[in-house]
Amino acid sequence: xxxLTLYDAVGAALTEEMRRDRTVMAFGEGxxxxxxxxxxxxxxLRVRNTPLAEGIIxxxxxxxxxxxxxxxxxxxxxxFLCYAMDELVNSAGKLRYMSGxxxxxxxxxxxxxxxxxxxxxxxNHNVEAWFVHSPGLKVVMPSTPADAKGLLKAAIRDDNPVxxxxxxxxxxxxxxxxxxxxxxxxxxxxxxxxxxDVTLVSYGKTVHNCxxxxxxxAAAGVSAEVVDLRSLKPLDMPTVLAxxxxxxxxxxxxxxNRLCGVGAEIAAVVAEEAFASLxxxxxxxxxxxxxxAASYPLEQAFVPQAAAIAAAAERLCRRQYA
Amino acid sequence: xxxNFPQIxxxxxxxxxxxxxxxxxxxxxxxxxxxxxxxxTSVGQEAAAxxxxxxxxxxxxxxxNHRSAGHLLARGADPGRLLAEVMGREGGYCGGRSGSxxxxxxxxGVVLTSTxxxxxxxxxxxxxxxxxxxxxxxxVVCFFGDGAACEGRFxxxxxxxxxxxxxxxxxxxxxxWQAFVHRREAMSREHVSxxxxxxxxxxQTIDGNDVLAVLAAAQTATExxxxxxxxxxxxxxxxxxxxxxxxxxxAYVDREELxxxxxxDPIKLLGDRLVADGSMTASGHARLAxxxxxxxxxxxxxxxxSPYPNADTLTRDVYA
Lengths: 322, 320
Hints:
The complex is a heterodimer. Chain A is of the alpha/beta class. Chain A contains 13 helices and 14 strands. Chain A is globular and about 65 Å long. Chain B has one domain (about 10-300): Thiamin diphosphate (ThDP)-binding fold, Pyr/PP domains (Rossmann fold), CATH 3.40.50. Chain B contains 11 helices and 8 strands. In chain B, the strands form 2 sheets. In chain B, strands 2-1-3-4-8-7 form a 6-stranded parallel sheet, sandwiched between helices. In chain B, helix 6 links the parallel strand 3 (about 140-145) and strand 4 (about 170-175). The longest helix of chain B has 24 residues, at about 280-305. In chain B, about 50% of the residues are buried. The interface between A and B is large, with 45 and 47 residues.
C-alpha cells in the first residue's frame, strides 16, 4: 500500500473524485497554488484560487451546490470559518429544510485546526462542535491518512454540506493509504484497539494520544479499547455503546474545549442509554475554556496528553464506586 | 436595439402590479385581523419587480430576499400557494417551513432566497458558476436592497463575479429604507451603482416607479449579461411605502418624502398613462382590478383550506 501524508491523502481523494465526476470542482485560498497537480490534470477552471474572502467562497459554493456542482472549498484555518458562518449555517444548513426539500447542498469545506504549528488562537481553534450543533451539516475529522482519503471521497459524494477538519498536528504524518476505491461511510467509528477494562473515545490527534495511553495502561495491567469517532455528525453511538457495554468504563477525549464539546454529548448519551453497564463515572478530558496560546509548551498543555488519559482511565479502573 | 426585444403588453404589466398590490394588501388586512402572520411587504416597489422579471427568459434563475412577493408573483407564482406558505400551511410552496421570508420555487427558477441581508448576494456567483461550468443556458438575477449593498458580501460578490466573468444581473431595489434606518444615514455614496464602477461592472440607476423604464433598462441589461457573460448592476430607485414589516406605524418616516413617493405610485403612474394615451379605458382598468380581486379571493380560499403541517413531519428534509 502506498505511504502518503494526510495532506497528500486529501490530494489523492480530490484527484480520484474529480476524475470520477465532472461536477466536482475545488476552489479556495491558495488551493490552485498548493495543489498545482490538480490544476495540471483538471485545468484552471475546475481548480481555482480565490480572494481571501471566506464568506463569498462559501456562499459561492452554496449557490453552485444547489444548482448542479459538487464544490470542495479550502478555507485554510478553522477560525476563518467565522467569516463563513452565515453561508454555511444559515444557507447550506437550513435552506434545504426551509424550502421544503427543494434543494440539496453537496459541498465540502476543508479547514485546518489543532496544535502543532504554534499559530495561536486565530488559526488554531477546534470549533467542530459548533457545526455539530447546527442542523443540516455533517462534520468529519479524520485521524489517519487512509481515513482522510476514504472519508473525503464519501464526503464529496454526500448530498449534504460536510465540514471536513484537518488536524494540523497530523497533516504531515505518513501512513498507508489504499490506492483503491475505498470510501469510508460518514458516521462509522473505528475501533483502533480492542480492550475490555475501559473505553477511550476520541477523534483527530488525540486518538493517537489514546493509543499511547493504552500502551501505558497495558503495562500497568489495564486493557483499554480505543474508539476513533472519525465523523462527529452523524455520530456512531452504536459503536461507542457496544464498547461501553463490554468495558463498563468510558473516558472521552478531545482537544476542543471540554465545555459543551462533542464529549459532553457522548457522555450524556452513554449515561442515558448504558447507565446499567457503567462501573464508574464517565470521565471527560478536553481543552480548557481558553484561547490557544502560540507558545509551544502552552499549546501542548492545551491538548490532553497520553499520561493524563492513562491516569484518568486508571482512576476509573482502580477506584471503588459504591 | 430596444426594438429587438419582445413586445410586452403594458396592460399585462399593470395586471401583475395590481395582483402584487392586492396580494400584499390582503396580507396586511389579514395581519391586522390576526389571521395571517405579518410580512415584509414590497408595497410601492411593484414596478421594480415586474419590470425586471418580465425582461427575463424562462431559463434565467432568480435569487431573492425577504421582500420577494413581487418577484414571485411576476414570475408566475400562484398566490394561493404563496399565501398558504405565509400562513404556515402544508399547501405552501415550501410546505409551511419558510413562511413569508425565504420562499423558493424551483419550478419557476426562483432558486435561492435568504432573509439574511446580503445572503442572496453571497450565493449568486455560485449559481452563475454552475451555469458556466456545466454549459447550462440562462443568466442569474439577484435582487437585493440598498441595505444589503452596505454589507461586505455585496462587495465580495461583485468582485468575484467580475473576476470570474460570471453572468449575474445584480438588481438593487433601492427603496430608501434599511429596516428602520434611512439610506442617507447608512450609505457613504448617493447611489449603489457608484460602487459597481470600482469593480469594472457596468451599472445604471433608473426610475424604479416607471415600470416601462424598468422593463426597457432590464431588457438592455439582461441582453448585455447574456452576450458578454459578465455581470451588470441595475439600481432601481423606488420607495418602501409601508413599514419594515407588518405592523409598523412608520412614525420614523418623513411625511413629505413619503407623500412625494406616494404621488408617484407605480400602479397609478402606469394606469393613468394607459388611460391617457387611449390604450385602456377606465372600465378596462376596473375590469383588471376585479379580475385580480377574484384571484386573491380564490387564493385566500385555497390557503384557508390547506391544512397545517403534521407535527410528525417536524424533522423532514433536514438532510438529503
